[in-house]
Amino acid sequence: MGQPVNVGVVGCGAISAQYFRTIDRLPQLRLAAVADLDLDRAREAVRPYAGVEVLSVAELMADPRVDVVLNLTIPAAHAEIALQAIAAGKDVYCEKPLAATAEDAGRMLRAADAAQVRVACAPDTVLGTGTQTARKAIDDGLIGRPVAATAMMVTPGHERWHPNPDFYYLPGGGPLLDMGPYYITSLVTLLGPVSTVIGAAGRTRAKRTIGSGPRRGEEIPVTVDTHVTGVLVHTSGALSTLVMSFDAAATKAPHIEVHGEQGSLVVPNPNHFDGPVLASGVGEEGWRDLPVSAGYVDAGRGVGLADFASTPPGEEPRTGGSLAFHVLDIMESLLASAHSGRAVNITSTCERPRPVVLIPSEGTSDRSGGTP
Questions:
Q1: Distance from the Cα of residue 372 to its chain's centroid
Q2: What is the reported pTM?
Q3: From 86, 266, 285, 334, which residue has the greatest number of CB atoms within 10 Å?
Q4: How far is CA 19 from CA 12, 293, 336, in A?
């Protein structure tokens, strides 16, 4: 194994701790520097990790030791930070979504092409054993030709637990832009790209009340749809029904189900890396657990960054920019359909990401790959 890839992180909010833990245990990656508008927060975030520099954003971008910028800012800042990194000649790995709008995401990808650097994006949960075991079952023909899927995420909203939930209810947020990337990326991984969407959406109230932290009791405005539903027509012909909501208490529906001509699968929560995959064939009684057969074992947030860093030049990363752009395009088009009352054709596409063979928790290098 060669030298580890030096990672510079911009944004030390709540999600950063999960990335730091993963980077710290993977020999392919080294946490080199962090930056945040709040330098004290940055110092506190990296206190458990020796030798990590705390820099300004400008200093981090200019640091020649930083190979890749991990962009953990809020969605509205994704494009700005990514463009700065690209201008500095650095690869970029973004938290989801790729940008607040497809227009901004397109600017990022064009700039990266011109600068000959690469862009990738979360979620990397689809690289874990949950989604990948389900994908292998589909590819092996266990359920026959896939014809449909359902994807369901229902919660009363993040303001109950998040001390600063404002961005969840601003452009770039909402249940679709916040949680949709997990579900739609999983659906594209399982069933391939999407050609058309039909949507409907609404919101229950104009304000939300923060339920924890120093701002507890403060009201914040809601400027985005908080319940979105729709149908995704995959180029394969399969139809996925999607429900993303911050407006209801709970659901007992599976996070994702995939139905084929010969059987059905229950796919675990796409916001998690693992979980049981259940199968039931035509004529069978009940469900059976499938053995873990593919994906990164015991993965955590950041495994996609390692997968990205180890992808050879000229090969599309599994979490590459074209996939992230297609997912963002699907979500934006779904909202456009909801507001217009008409189906919207998706102008972007992507290759179905390469599968992940079963990889033990000690490493993340996968050169045996598999075909797209």
A1: 19
A2: 0.94
A3: 334
A4: 10, 25, 33
**Could you tell me whether strands 29-35 and 53-55 are parallel, antiparallel, or unpaired per DSSP bridges?**
parallel
Mean pLDDT across 11-30: 95
Token pair, residue 258, equals 């995939």
On whether the CB atoms of residues 35 and 57 are closer than 8 A, the answer is yes
Q: Can you identify the CATH homologous superfamily of domain 5-124+300-320?
A: NAD(P)-binding Rossmann-like Domain (3.40.50.720)
| Residues in contact with 216: Cβ distance below 8 Å, sequence separation at least 6, in sequence order | 210
- Radius of gyration (Cα) for the chain, nearest Å? 20
Strand 68-71 and strand 5-10: the pairing is parallel
DSSP 283: T
- Are the folds of 5-124+300-320 and 125-289 the same? no
- Domain definitions of the chain by residue range: 5-124+300-320, 125-289
Q: Residue 256: CB partners within 8 Å, gap ≥ 6? A: 134, 149, 150, 151, 152, 183, 186, 187, 190, 266, 267, 268, 270
Amino acid sitting at position 55: L
Whether residue 69 contacts residue 32, with contact meaning beta carbons closer than 8 Å, is answered with: no
- The number of CA neighbours under 13 Å toward the Cβ of 76 is 8
Between CA 277 and CA 289 the distance in angstroms is 6
- Cα 121 to Cα 2, 40, 59, 222, 267, distances in angstroms: 24, 27, 23, 26, 22
Q: pLDDT tens across 47-85, in order? A: 999 999 999 999 999 999 999 999 999 988 999 999 999
* 131-176 pLDDT, tens digit each: 999 999 999 999 999 999 999 999 999 999 999 999 899 887 899 9
Task: Classify 242 as helix, strand or coil.
Answer: strand
Joined together, the tokens standing for residue 60 give: 């981090």
3-state SS, residue 156: coil
Class of domain 125-289: alpha beta
How far from chain centre, in Å, is Cα 93? 11
Q: Check: CB of residue 33 under 8 Å from CB of residue 54.
A: yes
CA end-to-end span of the chain, whole Å? 25
pLDDT score of 363: 52
Closest CA to 297 of 277, 317, 273: 273
* Residues comprising the chain, all counted: 372
Given a contact cutoff of 8 angstroms between Cβ atoms, the answer to whether 183 and 243 are in contact is no
